[in-house]
Request: fold
Amino acid sequence: MIGAPAALIWSGLGSVLHLAGTIAVASLAFWLWPRRSRFARAGVPVVCALFMTAIWGVASVASGDVLVRSFAETARNLAWLAAVYALFASDGRHDSLGPIRPVIYALVFVELMHLGTDIGLSRLAFDPRVLEVAFDFTVMFRLLVAVGGLVLVHNLYAGAPRDGRAALRWPATGLAVLWAFDLNLYTVAYLGSKWPVELGALRGIATLVLAACLAIGGARNSDELRLRPSRAVTFQTFSLLVIGGYLVAMVAVAQWLAYVGGDFARIIELAFLTLASAFALVVLPSRRVRGWLKVMTAKHFFQHRYDYREEWLRFTRTIGSGGEQALPLAERVVQAVADVTGSPAGLLLTPGDQGDLTLAARWNWRDVEVPAVACPARALAPFEQNAFIADLDDQRAGFTATGYEVEVPAWLLAEPRAWALVPLVHYERLVGMVVLARPQLARKFDWEDFDLLRVIGQQLASYLAENASQEALAESSRFEDFHRRIAFVMHDIKNLASQFSLLARNAELHADKPEFRADMLVTLRNSSDKLNALLARLSRYGNGAVDKLEPVPAGEVARTVIERFRGNPQVVLAETIEVMVTANRHSLEQVLLHLLQNALDASQPDSPVFLSLLNDGLNARFEVLDSGCGMSAEFVRNRLFKPFVSTKSGGFGIGAFEARELVRAMRGRLDVESREGLGSRFVVRVPLAAATDFYQTLAAKDQKVA
Reply:
């Protein structure tokens, strides 16, 4: 029993809360009426139920008649049952779920039974013991309605399609709070056989929560309004739960040992407490344990950061886009990875001929300077073996996970915008590396970022590998076409040879006749012209092999090549040294002649072309420099050294390809640097004669290892 002053306080508090809830639901009903379509077919029933809830609140505050309050509460419950049925009907489930209507009919019947019982009790006089039994019955009726309402709300949300749950989340939450409060209220009343004044005074809180949930559900951005505790708070709470559970278990075991009794049990109790405390001091502060707790809470207490359906659709659109306006595949690869983390730019590095990573594509990142060897081959093992994603901020801070020590190139660490390295691994083979630029809102990577980036990296690696295979097949097809052309050339040569043979036989018989001699001269002239034209087309092209490597004076080769352009003042020998190289003289001259001729073709008539010879460690370096039209990075990367691709009318398109193959056959290297509108520089490196033994020793070691 509570005293009169306390009763007055609880009554006043109940009136204030009921009045606040009444104002809230009435205001919400007026606000929601023009927006009732946001609840689809349930809009009108929901608004009507809100009005009935407001009427019930007014009756609870203004009326002292128990029958009036009971009638108002029955009307409220019936209105919300109708609203729940309308919510079921909004997605068509009232037709497919047969038990829904019987349950609602049963709850309506129970409400009417309760109202009839209250009317009977108010009109007739009964013995007090009968009134106590009747009170229990009326409370039981309310309990049945509360339980039935909660069951309906649970089925309403849990049985909804996944895409329909967003619209039902907040209405279902509000109704669950309303009927859950009633369930507790009437349970306490039934167990105590009296009305709980204190708990009854707080019913207005449930009404306020109902109004708030429905207001959120009726808002346009209700899908974005979710309870999302911060990860830090959740982690701390979970940590406290773990520590609390540990302490409870420790105390329970200690109490059990104490209950066993005896001196030996006390010794065991003290030993257990000592060991358990030491375990807590050593294990709980561990970074590994805390990292594990963070991963567990992130995986199981949070909705995933990424909408994987949307990520996959966006990835497919980016990679699968085609047409004239579409970016090249390499740039689309970078964009697909950058879209995941919101990075504004990126680079694609792919393995070159020597296994080192070189720049293959830029996406929105034109100002960064990338060296010719972007990442050496020796640093690629962790990325290739473990698909390790490197956070460059951690690398700059000197933090590396155990077993994942990587060597990051200095130019990347020095570039402040470089944020992460994402390897593209296909069948345990690294086919590329994406460098991501730092987004505006940079954050630390977590397990979900790593998982998604690894999966996307594997998928992109398969696209790149497939594209490389297709290019190899296309190149093979072009070689077949070239072989067919050579077959036609051989056929023409055979015809010419037949003509010469026939001419020689006839000359033995008719050489003294003037007519024959005149015809013979015409035939010889025509055949010679055909052969010269054919030789002019094929003179610079071969199979990329060299007959013999021997010591060759590099300076003499440079001067001989310049002599071939003696009549052209554009070609200038800028600098030369006297050094011996191991090469094939004819092949080396052929390469330099081709590069100089291409430089002349790309330059204006008054623009000089320079040839220089310098010493470069164990190599001699020939440089052909021009200030002509230059070439784009895409052309140098994808077309310059591709056979049968020519920008010249009538060209075979294998000059640059053969030049590179000849240099490789001489154990050298051909590199290109070019900028559109600025010019090009071709660098030919061939080994010095003094370094021949060194290269032969390396080759012998490689053969032995193989």
About this structure: The mean pLDDT is 77. The two ends are 95 Å apart (CA to CA).
